[in-house]
Design a protein that fits this description.
It contains 18 helices and no strands. The protein has a domain at about 225-430. The protein is globular and about 60 Å long. By secondary structure, it is an all-alpha fold. The protein starts with 5 loop residues before the first helix and ends in an 8-residue tail after the last helix.
């Protein structure tokens, strides 16, 4: 997008890239090494976060523990490992009881070394307060003593800076996308694990209001806007995916099939299923016969950037080189993935310089709609990412109420992966066009 002071934009780009790299490392670097996890029960007092109803004495609701324990799906993450489906999966994988298997506990519980657990810490709490907010032993006794104890003081003592979109994205995607220690492998999927789906802005808002109870209030004019949170999530999820691919590439053998798009293989043999009906050339499809990587977030970033006038050729080329190397020349895969990471940092830096006023939101909405209707999101996983982004932008444009029926139809097309129909998806998308529905 052409603006005055373009030379300043170019000069700032390298700084933005450096800041992004530093921010990605900040989450782990700020936690004191001797900090301990005190357990969810440490937050449960009715005078702290265990009130049965919201209170007005402080800036927080003070009923967060009750909201988490009664309404938040994270509180049942460990209990899920005890159900029949988990028992069946564990039996198929031959890993013993799911509730004791490290690969299951990695994302279904708050797993920390024994030396970092207080007596109140319980694996059975699932994903509890400190899973997101950080180990609390250093900041718990004094974090409520504002203004004597500042937010910066708490951060220095190990509190996670979740108000920063990148830190929030790093925290959530560690499980919802995965990393070298937490990975929903192809074997897990084959044994029955659900396909991972994540969008930071959408899931964050669903979590914040889960069960109709607010986990925290949004302060008008404070905090990051929805598009900023959305972009941070897309970038971080793509970075996590590249890290997983790089980890697989470094093994020196065939990559685990979990890094590839499920519908690269799990589709029928009609010609249309291999790209028929897509307008133009798919920039991320790769050569005929190549398995396509999990690329829903990457596809979203490309369409968003193109809609805003940001160049994407560098990132697109780097991504396809990594995909081709993983398919054809494993010895080159690690270097190619590293190149894609670098290109992603540059793309994020350029996106970080964009404004998000009404005009930009409309341009991105229109761009996503055109891309989705032309087949740029060819499978259920990528289509879900597009749908969540479109609905977020409709809400930002204050148009979501007038399209409730169309939004319901849109998500109905995504309810069953096996029944996904790109033609039907495109037809419903046409009804979402902001120009075709009158404002009230």
């Amino acid at each position: 997008m052409m603006r005055k002071g373009m030379w300043m934009k170019l000069a700032r780009r390298s700084v933005q890239s450096l800041l992004f790299c530093l921010s990605m490392a900040a989450f782990a670097a700020d936690v004191p090494k001797d900090a301990k996890h005190e357990g969810a029960a440490s937050c449960a007092s009715s005078l702290c976060h265990g009130s049965s109803r919201p209170l007005d004495a402080h800036g927080v609701l003070q009923n967060e523990y009750v909201t988490w324990s009664q309404f938040d799906p994270h509180s049942s993450a460990y209990r899920v490992l005890l159900n029949a489906r988990s028992r069946q999966m564990a039996a198929r994988l031959r890993i013993g009881p799911a509730e004791k298997a490290p690969q299951c506990l990695a994302c279904h519980a708050e797993v920390v070394p024994t030396a970092q657990r207080s007596p109140r810490h319980q694996l059975s709490d699932g994903i509890a307060c400190e899973s997101c907010h950080g180990p609390s032993s250093k900041w718990l006794p004094t974090h409520h003593q504002s203004p004597a104890v500042t937010h910066a003081d708490n951060l220095a003592r190990g509190l996670a800076a979740l108000e920063r979109p990148v830190v929030r994205a790093e925290t959530c995607t560690a499980c919802h996308v995965g990393d070298a220690k937490r990975y929903a492998s192809h074997a897990m999927m084959a044994a029955g694990h659900p396909r991972l789906v994540f969008d930071l802005e959408t899931y964050g808002e669903l979590w914040r209001t889960s069960g109709g109870r607010e986990h925290y209030r949004k302060a008008p004019g404070k905090g990051a806007d929805a598009p900023e949170i959305w972009i941070a999530g897309l970038v971080t999820a793509t970075q996590r995916q590249l890290d997983l691919i790089g980890h697989q590439a470094g093994r020196g053998s065939i990559a685990d099939f979990g890094v590839y798009a499920c519908h690269s293989c799990h589709r029928d043999l009609r010609v249309a299923a291999f790209g028929g009906g897509t307008s133009g050339v798919d920039p991320l499809a790769g050569a005929p016969g190549e398995l396509r990587l999990q690329d829903g977030n990457a596809r979203m970033l490309i369409v968003v950037a193109q809609s805003l006038g940001v160049a994407t050729q560098d990132f697109t080329a780097a991504w396809t080189r990594a995909q081709s190397a993983l398919n054809r020349e494993p010895a080159r895969a690690a270097a190619a993935v590293a190149g894609a990471r670098t290109a992603l940092v540059r793309l994020h830096a350029a996106l970080g310089l964009q404004r998000w006023q009404t005009a930009e939101k409309q341009r991105v909405f229109d761009g996503l709609l055109r891309a989705a209707r032309s087949g740029a999101f060819p499978d259920p996983a990528a289509a879900e990412q597009a749908a969540m982004g479109l609905v977020m932008l409709l809400a930002e444009l204050d148009l979501d109420r007038t399209r409730k029926a169309q939004i319901d139809q849109l998500f109905a097309t995504l309810r069953d992966d096996n029944a996904f129909d790109r033609v039907r998806f495109a037809r419903v998308l046409a009804q979402l066009d902001r120009k075709t529905v009158r404002s009230p």
